[in-house]
Amino acid sequence: MIVEDFLRYMLAERDASPQTVETYREALDDYKTFLEKLDSQLTPEGADSDVIRDWIEDMMEKGQKASYACKKLSAVKSLYRYALRKGIVERDPAHKVTGPKKEKVLPTFLREEEADNLFDKLDWNLEDINDVRARTLLLLLYSTGIRRGEVVALRDEDVNLINHEIKVTGKRRKQRIVPLGEEMVEAIKYYQQLRDEKIPATDNSHALFRNDKGEAITAAIVYSIVRHYLSFVTTQKKRSPHVLRHTFATVMLNHDAKLGSVQKLLGHESLKTTQIYTHVTFEELKRSYEDAHPREGKNSQL
């Protein structure tokens, strides 16, 4: 409703051309589609800044040009300015969101120490289904690099604990096999056992990760879990599931994994998308040098 009202306003009161209105409509339809995939109940009125940033990140990961993403963001910004004036929303979540620069922004990731702290130092209650579900979910995102939507779509039948692998359904329904480490296998095995004891079975009980009613968890819940627990181990503002995906890729390359292998594990269609992580690892290398080398930071006497 808010989108249609805004487009009528643009046409009638702002005297925008039909072509401009159509361009705005396409951008806003794309935005609404992203929100619906994230959570069927999520509307533009209920979205926040992080969701808008995730939308932009999603466009960039699909290979869209920065100028294209900025143009779509401009339409969303105009929508929220209109909604704020009309009192439809109390605040403008797009106000401080900036579009991507022409050079790709380096992905945000956890340091390996931060990731270790997430799983080894937090006070996890392994008798509590909520804690066990959260820890298993976080470990899966970190150890496989799968996307938020992919983890939501996982079913028990997609998990092969004997062969140590999962079948992941990615974008455009493309499937790939991702290996699981021993720790991950044991974590899933324990979670499934506790889940089946604590959560009553329903018709939708085939999902790997379920809420307390036995239904598949939503993308919004995954986002909430990740954001909550990452706040204990990092001070960085970006704390979305994609941070764990970025961390997976960075860790793999830092430990000498081949770029093509990481591409396949992430489900990237283009190697160019994966290559951004080589820049991330180089930036990490530079930071390590600056922190460790005894001559770094000294003023030149020449």
Protein architecture, described:
The chain is mainly alpha-helical and 302 residues long. A hairpin with a 5-residue loop joins β2 and β3. The N and C termini lie far apart (67 Å). 30% of the residues are buried. The model has no long low-confidence stretch (mean pLDDT 87).
Number of DSSP E strands: 3
Average pLDDT score? 87
Kindly report the spatial arrangement of strands forming the biggest sheet: 1-2-3
Secondary structure category: mainly alpha
Low-pLDDT regions? none
Helix content: 55-70%
Count of helix runs: 12
Distance separating the two termini: 67 Å
Shape category: globular
Note the run of SSEs as H and E: HHHHHHHEEEHHHHH
Please summarize what this structure is.
56% of the residues lie in helices and 4% in strands. With 302 residues, it is mainly α.
Which helices and strands, and how do they pair?
Blueprint: H1 2-12, H2 18-38, H3 49-61, H4 66-85, H5 112-120, H6 129-144, H7 148-153, E1 159-160, E2 165-169, E3 175-179, H8 182-198, H9 219-230, H10 241-254, H11 259-266, H12 271-292
Antiparallel strand pairs: 1-2, 2-3
Which terms would index this structure?
mainly alpha, 12 helices, three-stranded antiparallel β-sheet, 302 residues, single chain
